[in-house]
Description:
By secondary structure, the chain is of the alpha/beta class. Helix content is 41%, strand content 15%. The strands form five sheets. A seven-stranded parallel sheet has the order 1-2-3-4-6-12-13, covered by helices on one side. Strands 5-7 form a two-stranded parallel ribbon. Strands 8-9 form a two-stranded antiparallel sheet. Helix 5 (85-99) packs parallel to helix 7, helix 7 (134-159) packs across helix 10 (227-233) and helix 11 packs parallel to helix 12. The protein is globular. The two termini are 31 Å apart. The model has no long low-confidence stretch (mean pLDDT 96).
Amino acid sequence: MYHHYKEDIALFAEMGFKTYRLSIAWTRIFPNGDEAAPNEEGIAFYEDLFKECHKYGIEPLVTITHFDCPIHLIKQYGGWKNRKIIDFYENLVRVLFTRYKGLVKYWITFNEINVILHAPFMGAGLVFNEGEDKELAMYTAAHHELLASALAVKIGHEIDPENKIGCMMAAGTYYPYSCHPSDVWAAYEDGRKEYYLVDVQARGSYPPFFLKQLKSKGYESFIVEGDFDFLKENTVDFVSFSYYATRVSVGQENTEVEYTPGNIVKSAKNPYLELSEWGWQIDPQGFRTTINNLYDRYQKPLFVVENGLGAIDLPDADGYVIDDYRIDYMAKHIDAMRDAVNIDGVEIWGYTSWGCIDLVSAGTGEMKKRYGFIYVDRDNEGNGTLKRTPKKSFNWYKKVIASNGEDTSNN
């Protein structure tokens, strides 16, 4: 996109985008992460990109850190295990909020912050030493990210009171495998473990069960006096999330249970749901349930910032893809979201799909796992012209946007 962003944004505008969610590359602003002054070329690139969005009336929604800790900070400081990384993050957000004041007002502090518990290198740049307590390292890094997120909220509001700063989680309701009490409890426990980081960002405090767990394990060493007050004083303006699938929890010993890979987090297979080509359980009704769970829990505006179907697309000789399977997936999910708004009364600020254009999958590192409305001529080995070709879903989504989600029919 570095070389094609004007072409891409023009295509987004043709679809009717009102907002475009993108992520800053930390290393474009501070190549090593710990420099005193930012890289002006990187600053200029994003400034031009944001201006290009505004040319078409598209509001940028910017993720500050998207699985993106500079490798120098990992090697030199140990990634987010080191409290000093908060200082480098502060430098980053001060530059972003200052330089892009008036160009960007919707921000997300960390992408899918709960992924740190499942993929710690991706989520926080964690590399474990032999014999290291991995759980303690993850909780320490997560605490530092929470403090950094709160700091971003504070600074962002000081620099521009118009800024709206949110958090983000990888969401998806946990179902119990059966009505056996141990399965129900397992689903409850799995769910609240995923929520606990957003509990801090949205409510301003750790949930009691987590503090009890820290104390029982002697894990309180990373908490410094004043941390809790700072977190309480700087909560987010909105809660954003990704949603691809629901999960199923098993609490009792059951050797007959079949599992499926899911989205980073494996899950027991739900016999009532279809699977994507990558084993993700397709559940539009679960989307509505998840939306309501989040709104009931936090009572803050929601923003759906990722939802979509990763699939193998087979283009014709002209690069055109007839992706009715994607249209079907997204139509059912948008219908469920509309019900959450119109019937359940949930406040949702917006919806951005993942991804609007084909890109390399973060989960598997593949190009063949495609999500976009626009086909990009590139394969897993890096071959291809990078030519952009709208898929069938391109014109379908154009109609969906024009109707503000009311018309999701495929005709």
